[in-house]
Amino acid sequence: MKDKASISHDESMARELRENPDFAAEYLRAAMEDEAEPRVLLVALRRVAQARGLAKVARTAGIERESLYRALSPRGNPRFSTLVAVAKAMGLKLTFESGR
Q: What string of pLDDT tens digits covers the 100 residues of the chain?
């Protein structure tokens, strides 16, 4: 009997983030809910962008690849317009909900 090839958790997550827009949206929504550490959202956005091809996302968003890497790093401080452009380039949109 031949062993099945296995993939790592990171590879599995990347595939899911790339191929399942609803999963990616829920992943980012969960990251936004971490009010104690807002940088979690930047890391989550970067993981989704990397899964979908960071260079392609940057090009579609009209941002230099290196600038996007910096903006979405844990120490990044992107403009709101950058976040909107990146989300749009990945086929997502930023939304707000009532906290009640």
A: 555 668 898 899 999 999 999 999 999 999 988 877 878 989 999 999 999 999 999 999 999 999 999 999 888 899 999 999 999 999 998 888 787 7
**Contact by Cβ (8 Å): 78, 63:** no
> How far is the CA of 67 from the CAs of 40, 57, 92, in angstroms?
18, 12, 20
Q: How many domains does the chain have?
A: 1
Indicate whether 31 belongs to any domain: yes
| Conformational region of residue 20, where left means phi above 0, alpha means psi within -120 to 50, and beta covers everything else | beta
